[in-house]
Amino acid sequence: MTNNKTPLVEMRDVSISFGGIHAVDGASVDLFAGEVVALLGHNGAGKSTLIKILSGAYRRDSGDILINGEQAEINNPRDAKKYGIETIYQTLAVADNVDAAANLYLGRELRTPWGTLDDVAMEAKAREVMGRLNPNFQRFKEPVKALSGGQRQSVAIARAILFDARILIMDEPTAALGPQETAQVGELITQLKREGIGIFLISHDIHDVFDLADRVFVMKNGRVVGHARTEDVTKDEVLGMIILGKVPPGAVPGPGAMQTA
Amino acid sequence: MTDHTIAVPATRTTTGARAAPGNPLKRFFQATEIDTRLLGMVVAMLAIWIGFHIMSGGLFLTSRNLWNLSVQAASVSVMATGMVLVIVTRNIDLSVGSILGFVGMIMAVTQTKFLPAWLGYDHPANWFLALAVGIVLGSAIGAFQGMIIAFLNVPSFIVTLGGLLVWRGAAWMVTSGATVAPMDTTFRLMGGGADGSIGATASWIVGVIACLFIVLSILHSRKQRKRFGFPLKPVWAEFVVGIVSCGVVLGAVNVLNSYYMPVNLARKYAEDHGIAWPENGLDIPLGIAIPVLIALGIAIVMTFLTNRTRFGRYVFAIGGNPEAAELAGIKTRWVTVRLFALMGALCAIAAAISTARLNAATNAQGTLDELYTIAAAVIGGTSLAGGVGTIAGAVLGALVMQSLNSGMVLLGMDAPLQSIVIGMVLVLAVWLDTIYRARAR
């Protein structure tokens, strides 16, 4: 990645606290088009919180978000979607009681000229997108509740890519999946990357994401320990960053880096 | 269960789950896409009807009783259609009975005190203005409660429990407890009765229009599915559904049309219309009562709202997963406010029906209606856990409740015993539903 390009997303000095606890404290991350950036850290390191600020689920206390170098105003999930930011949440944010098409278009339903829901058109598009992701998927009429974990995950992913996302956030995308499905998600990420989409991968398990990512950002106690290109560091060194906050020579230290050493 | 996972290669497509042969009955339901749960309710209701018919010695399944039943169920049925959506969003509205009482009182005072002073007694616009005042007031009360629930995060159970007390007290304060009567003559038509029915010819016209509508909607849905090349229902299944639906509609019209005006009313009608009174009396069919027509209209509008609009979709999404709905960018709080406002408006319409039918407004009107309304919704298959419920089910639920009520009255059962039976039936119905859902899974 050349650093003189304008990043697709830049979060600068972002902080948020909940009841006096600094969940995210002066964190800065950036992401370029066609790049996969892994955001790593223990549970509670603040990575999900940081990313929820980008997706509009939380409102930051301070700091800036820049999209293509311009200040972006993101105060709710609708704002984020306007900037082409789509999120696949760890908790699989799907409405269990409605069908796949309804979930894909939730909040952005297609409507007929009379303003009513155009269910048939939505189902047609859903069949098309799901056909690409998961050719065997046939259960379009059933509530999502009736689907398997992998099928639900493909619904969540389909929803994110349906609307021409430029920035994709995947929070523990493979947590609910078996090995085969995980491989499938990996392929999908590579494909989306080729299409020029910037992807944030959030995980607490380095093995899930190290091979997919171009760069890693490591967070600890709400602060960024440092970041590195995956080719410049080893998995063990990144583990050291996650566990101890120790920054190896190949990485750029952040405000959360261990001060001794 | 066959599991289609992402990784299964296309060549190994397991079509087993779709093309499961099953027994003929199962195939029939699959092809016609009939909601078996709803069908079960219809069967249960028919069983109740036949049971009462036998026990009462042939009094229940008469056109007269069924006509009365339809009128009596109208008010609760109107409110139940809204209660379904409230419960679907994991809320509850305990204040509907009290809102009905208060709004009914205000509508009564409007048409007996304010409007006559301004427009004169029985001015043709009185009924409409009174109803409009009621609907605006009902929506405002509902929206107010909804805002407290959505924006101040007070649980709906508490807000509407407070509302139950507040609006009941307010209903008393409007006239210091005095009953207001009589209502405007046009307004009274909304309550049914001899004048408040549309007669045989108009009823048949309504029935035929309903049938045309059924046929057109079947054709439209086929056309839509063809447009995108989706699998179609078998033609025989479409025919079965169409013919049975039209048969039920026309049969119901026929039943309502075979209830004739009681002799003294008919005599008065004949006098008013200058018809000579024949020796053996005059059979003037009542046809569909206006409150029933209102309740059916509301049910259709609410079904449309639920299935075909964004609002309805959001209501169900919120019920299924509030967090997901919020993250999808739905303004969940505003949906809640609008939903409670809608519930308030429905209470106002129910209040109009019930004050018109009683030809009076009392401060006790609608007492315990919240429980009948919730019971109707729940018997109709609405899950208190949220996310599940249908308008048609709630209307059927209201009919079942009213059938039990009037059946027990016909049998001459004591009022306390009636309450005991209704209470037990409610629990039994929900228990059966729980078993059904567990097996369907």
From TrEMBL, chain A:
<dbReference type="InterPro" id="IPR003439">
    <property type="entry name" value="ABC_transporter-like_ATP-bd"/>
</dbReference>
<dbReference type="Pfam" id="PF00005">
    <property type="entry name" value="ABC_tran"/>
</dbReference>
<protein>
    <submittedName>
        <fullName>Sugar ABC transporter ATP-binding protein</fullName>
    </submittedName>
</protein>
<dbReference type="InterPro" id="IPR003593">
    <property type="entry name" value="AAA+_ATPase"/>
</dbReference>
<keyword id="KW-0067">ATP-binding</keyword>
<keyword id="KW-0762">Sugar transport</keyword>
<keyword id="KW-0472">Membrane</keyword>
<dbReference type="InterPro" id="IPR050107">
    <property type="entry name" value="ABC_carbohydrate_import_ATPase"/>
</dbReference>
<keyword id="KW-0677">Repeat</keyword>
<dbReference type="InterPro" id="IPR027417">
    <property type="entry name" value="P-loop_NTPase"/>
</dbReference>
<feature type="domain" description="ABC transporter">
    <location>
        <begin position="9"/>
        <end position="246"/>
    </location>
</feature>
<dbReference type="GO" id="GO:0016887">
    <property type="term" value="F:ATP hydrolysis activity"/>
</dbReference>
<keyword id="KW-0813">Transport</keyword>
<dbReference type="GO" id="GO:0005524">
    <property type="term" value="F:ATP binding"/>
</dbReference>
<keyword id="KW-0547">Nucleotide-binding</keyword>
From TrEMBL, chain B:
<keyword id="KW-0813">Transport</keyword>
<protein>
    <recommendedName>
        <fullName>Xylose transport system permease protein XylH</fullName>
    </recommendedName>
</protein>
<feature type="transmembrane region" description="Helical">
    <location>
        <begin position="157"/>
        <end position="178"/>
    </location>
</feature>
<feature type="transmembrane region" description="Helical">
    <location>
        <begin position="67"/>
        <end position="88"/>
    </location>
</feature>
<dbReference type="InterPro" id="IPR001851">
    <property type="entry name" value="ABC_transp_permease"/>
</dbReference>
<feature type="transmembrane region" description="Helical">
    <location>
        <begin position="38"/>
        <end position="61"/>
    </location>
</feature>
<comment type="function">
    <text>Part of the binding-protein-dependent transport system for D-xylose. Probably responsible for the translocation of the substrate across the membrane.</text>
</comment>
<feature type="transmembrane region" description="Helical">
    <location>
        <begin position="100"/>
        <end position="121"/>
    </location>
</feature>
<keyword id="KW-1003">Cell membrane</keyword>
<feature type="transmembrane region" description="Helical">
    <location>
        <begin position="339"/>
        <end position="360"/>
    </location>
</feature>
<feature type="transmembrane region" description="Helical">
    <location>
        <begin position="408"/>
        <end position="432"/>
    </location>
</feature>
<feature type="transmembrane region" description="Helical">
    <location>
        <begin position="127"/>
        <end position="150"/>
    </location>
</feature>
<dbReference type="GO" id="GO:0022857">
    <property type="term" value="F:transmembrane transporter activity"/>
</dbReference>
<keyword id="KW-0762">Sugar transport</keyword>
<dbReference type="Pfam" id="PF02653">
    <property type="entry name" value="BPD_transp_2"/>
</dbReference>
<feature type="transmembrane region" description="Helical">
    <location>
        <begin position="239"/>
        <end position="260"/>
    </location>
</feature>
<keyword id="KW-1133">Transmembrane helix</keyword>
<feature type="transmembrane region" description="Helical">
    <location>
        <begin position="284"/>
        <end position="305"/>
    </location>
</feature>
<keyword id="KW-0472">Membrane</keyword>
<feature type="transmembrane region" description="Helical">
    <location>
        <begin position="198"/>
        <end position="219"/>
    </location>
</feature>
<dbReference type="GO" id="GO:0005886">
    <property type="term" value="C:plasma membrane"/>
</dbReference>
<feature type="transmembrane region" description="Helical">
    <location>
        <begin position="372"/>
        <end position="401"/>
    </location>
</feature>
